[in-house]
Amino acid sequence: MASMMQPQIILLKEGTDTSQGKPQLVSNINACMAVADVVRTTLGPRGMDKLIHDDKGNTTISNDGATIMKLLDIVHPASKILVDIAKSQDSEVGDGTTTVVLLAGEFLREAKPFVDDGVHPQNLIRSYRAASYLAIEKIKELAVSIEGKSLEEKKSLLANCAATTLSSKLIGGEKEFFATMVVDAVLAIESDDRLNMIGIKKVPGGTMRDSFLVNGVAFKKTFSYAGFEQQPKKFLNPKILLLNIELELKSEKENAEIRLSDPLQYQSIVDAEWNIIYDKLDKCVKSGAKIVLSRLAIGDLATQYFADCDIFCAGRVAEDDLHRVAAATGGTVQTSVNNVIDEVLGSCEVFEEKQVGNERFNIFNGCPSGQTATIVLRGGADQFIEEAERSLHDAIMIVRRAMKNSTVVAGGGAIDMEISRYLRQHARTIAGKSQLFINSFAKALEVIPRQLCDNAGFDATDVLNKLRQKHALADGEGALYGVDINTGGIADSFANFVWEPAVVKINAINAATEAACLILSVDETVKNPKSESAQGEAAAGMGRGRGGGRGRGMRRR
Amino acid sequence: MALAFDEYGRPFIILREQESKSRLRGLDAQKSNIAAGVAVSRILRTSLGPKGMDKMLQSPDGDITITNDGATILEQMDVDNQIGKLMVELSRSQDYEIGDGTTGVVVMAGALLEQAERLLERGIHPIRVAEGFEISSRIAVDHLEQISHKFDFSATNIEPLVQTCMTTLSSKIVNRCKRSLAEIAVKGVMAVADLERKDVNLDLIKVEGKVGGKLEDTELIYGIIVDKDMSHPQMPKQIEDAKIAILTCPFEPPKPKTKHKVDIDTVEKFQTLREQERKYFDDMVQRCKDVGATLVICQWGFDDEANHLLMHRNLPAVRWVGGVELELIAIATGGRIVPRFQELTPEKLGKAGLVREKAFGTTKDRMLYIEHCANSRAVTVFIRGGNKMMIEETKRSIHDALCVARNLIRNNSIVYGGGAAEISCSIAYAIRAFADALDSVPMALAENSGLQPIETLSAVKAQQIKEKNPCCGIDCNDAGTNDMREQNVFETLIGKQQQILLATQVVKMILKIDDVISPSEY
Description:
B: GROEL, domain 1, chaperone (chain B), cytoplasm (chain B), ATP hydrolysis activity (chain B), unfolded protein binding (chain B), ATP binding (chain B)
């Protein structure tokens, strides 16, 4: 780009890719729009799924924006920002990941003509920020609180939120079923922040409807030794001992060696070892526990010993399962069997080993502290269950969010239309260029209802105009109208229970604006050729290394 | 993915290795996915029904499997296509949950996909199609519930169960012995079933096979068969009222787990060591004798010395019995597994009415029968057959039959087979594409039986409507009647419902994909 007349001043290493100025900005916008186009079709109840292979042959079928963005393996530096906001939306609120990418893409699309016309990006950024601030204030104003309702009422309200999220997923057909399940699970763990207290177990086979919620913990039968089948498989109000030690006949010290000079003492060594393990087992039995779980192995000897004492045991329980059991039953994980007092033992109402599909499950039901829940998911194919799990994760996050912030807004594009109207109205009061920018921001927000229509195969322009008319009604009576996916017209989303927690929208608009502003403020990319040449160098280095090795050998001669 | 261009028309790369990735979008993606799914179901179509054909599959190691079990065929085919894999998992799910109807579910899914393709071509939104299928599947399931019959059975009256199992077995290679095999399966399940909890633990039914003899020699043994023989050829071959010591410790001097060394520096010490070792053996055998055991079953091996001693003391023994079998023996005989000799007590011994070793034909193979056990809640189905493939296929067939019997114990509703249930559902409501897809099962049945598919199907349909009899199905066996009630062709209600639900579910999943991004090598 430097003038060729004068000797060129080389500032950067050769091969460094620098592009700058307006063209650079436009090309960044183009890249982001291309990425947004990928996830575009997944939005809404009629959104489609993507099937993505990776190099290793793993397949994912998903409708979740964050998952798709992650798997797309984007390398374009500007577009990576979109991946990041999808991820942050996922970790912050758990849902609306497609929305946020779409909004960011649309903000940029609207900004592009202005950039082309020579508007300074900073002007755009300032207006976008102002608009996003106004939009969020408006959402807060419009949001309806569900605080102070009775538990029953709250439950059905939360279920509506969950159902809205689930409607766009593969399990949408059974959304009511899963929504109640999710709400029950979230209510079970109450305000506990540890999300891992909700376990999701996947068992292939069966239909979605065979999925069930365990008010406690469930995990797959662990590896067992002979004698396991002779243990009782059902207990009422058992005491549960949780261990983190091996119950196996083994050498007590790794590097110890015993030297015997008298062969007659041989038996005493053998006995001593047996006594150690029997002592441990005896203490377990004496503690009064009826169920013994350990994170480490429980050997065949112990299995049979417990079988003799009518105790159920399971070794090699996964760590998070064991922690869940501990939290649920009120027990504490012990690292020794000495001094096991009653307080460290957990308990639950019913313990049972049950057949679920092809697997057997240990199920702890009716736990006293009640701060755990386990969802056992069933489905026809592995990928199906994987996707169901992702969908449930979204729904769980939504319900938790809704419980904490307990304000909801109307979904189905209603809130977006209303903000859009509000911003347009507001823009008229502004003098100067900013009016245009805020108008374009408002226009960008309409992408949500438009995309909902497009995905469902409706005439987007038609529906959008109907919506605009409703929302423009003077007394605000049409403020809750959104796209009606079932009829292709418009309907009162709030009355139809298409609800979203306000925080999802707030976060989405915030994140999308941030991302758009960030991309707009970049006017130069300097891409070092490093990564590629570093690889080349590494390969060359290895070659040289080998050569050097040989060389050294030669020299040593 | 379409390349993006910047202001100078230079393409830039957004995704890693963008050029080498292929991408299918929109209708093309759906069509190619549907084609893959349909291709898989076509393969299985000919295996459906009593006149269905078998498939021969050769594994990379050269092992040959001949089967007509849908799940097995798909498993061994090693499908590479992603959508094909979904179909494989579909049939596996049916296998896990129900155990039978693995072919039917794939055929149905394939038919649904074919129908869906037609609808997509007319421009109907794929999710609309999927939702329509979902609604229809629910109606179908409800309808099945309506036309289902409950029948009563009890521990003594197992005839209805046998009839249903026979329907399952009739499509298998073993159908000439279906009556006896069905009886075996039902009796086996009844023996281990917990009728009050309606639960059956199939782990308690062991299926063992041995080449040789004929299929008719297959038998049900109320006890356990172990593919082992007595440790010493001169030990008695038959023990009545055996008291069995079940050991998980070897007949040899115990070893501490800690590293150890015994210093032998004098001749006396060596003598003592030898003496002590001998004494160990002696003690061990004596202990077994003392508690009254008449048979020792051991998880590990024994020293020749111990073996000789056991023979000498007239204590028959079996060695190297696997952990699973050991457990089954313990359950069957009511004994306890004993980890060391010091703990042997008379109460821990298992009891069996008869233990005998049986030789087969001219071969040296022997097997140990443990029968008339104290607790008969562990049974063995012992399969004989001309060759290994036959036995393997029989095992799979028996497994299917066992699953059917188990499902009936869980839920005793049945629907009529031979495509009768599908035809009835298809008549019952008007979501046309779904109904057409349902018809594919009886069509395939008729085709496989060498009948005119369309003619037969419409005749049966007409008959069902005319007589308002949901029991009419395809007469595959030329029995002269279309009434499946008279032919005693039953299927379980839950199996059929599961088939419809699962097939719909997977079809929805396939239809919902509009974008396939894959590395180029696929």
